[in-house]
Amino acid sequence: MDPLASTRCTRPQVVWPVAPGGGDLTWRRAGGPKFRQTSPGRCVPVAVTDDVVEQRVVEQGTRRFQGAVTGWAALRWQGAAYFDGTAHDGSRLPIPLISHSELRPDDRIVVTREQLALAERIQVAGLWCASPERAVFDEVRRRGFLRAGVEAIDMAAAAGLTTVAAVSHHIYMAGPKTGIELARRAVALAVDSSGSPPETSMRLVWELDAELPRPLCNVPLFGRGGTLLGFPDLFDPEAGIVGEYDGAAHLAAANRRKDVAREERFRDHGLEYFTLVAGDLGDRAGVVRRMLRARDRALFLPESNRAWTLETPAWWSVA
């Protein structure tokens, strides 16, 4: 079982824009009803929809410019699932580009002319992108808020594109740039092992609002006999508390049965337990109260008396 599997995605097949004037695609034919313009001088067949986010990325990332796709779009192109290119209201975000060329105004893109070092520009599956560290740095600054910035770093790291340490080093080396202080604060709160944005939000309520010690995330937890108990979304090893965020998928009967069985396993091994569901995180004060009550009930057992352990048995393999 991989608790971070949902943070990654496979790049779907896309149709690359082409420039008229070569082969059978004349400028006259490209301007006809069978093609649509993706950017000045490039087009795709009209049947090709841009509903798929990667199609939007490749259409704007192949413009005639010197630079790279960055931010959420670069992270999505490189396989990070939670960067889906939509705003909170469901509207489409423009594709962020770092460009050293003059580009015509277009609401499908947003352009920055900041410097892009050679080491920050990589080619991924034929498309020039900012490196994961530069892309997530730009995304944190675009979001503009601490918790949203932590979420961006968490999701890029969980997808395996980078690590919190690598992002921290990039930010340290970035020098005085707009948003640098926000990025520094965000990376200090980020982890490599959050499994979803709500899990990050839950952890930040635990740390920032409840002011409790930093928990572990999605670590394998075992019984003393070597039985795998599960991968808690949030785990406080000092008190012995498991915190879980159950999204919409957990409402299905089969998944709910698994959740109940998992809770029983944890409780049978002396662990306190709390669960959050969709909507709970909108009431931070209420979540804090639940977290603090769970900690009041927790046993705080010494290691010698615990029925659980973080030590991996000989049979265990992360593969």
Describe the structure.
This protein has 319 residues and is an alpha+beta fold. It has 2 domains: 191 residues, no CATH class; 111 residues. The chain has 10 helices and 13 strands. The strands form 5 sheets. The chain has a 3-stranded mixed sheet with strand order 3-4-5. The chain has a 3-stranded antiparallel sheet with strand order 9-8-13. Strand 8 and strand 9 form a beta hairpin. Helix 3 crosses helix 4, helix 5 crosses helix 7 and helix 5 packs across helix 8. The relative contact order is 0.09.
Tally of contiguous helical segments? 10
Number of strands: 13
Characterize the biggest β-sheet.
3 strands, mixed
State the end-to-end distance. Answer: 9 Å
Content-based structural category: alpha+beta
Shape: elongated
Fraction in helix? 25-40%
Q: How do the strands of the widest beta sheet line up side by side?
A: 3-4-5
**Average residue-wise pLDDT:** 94
| Percentage of β-strand residues | 15-25%
**Rg for CA atoms:** 23 Å
Order of helices and strands: HEEHEHEEEEHHHHHEEEEHEHE
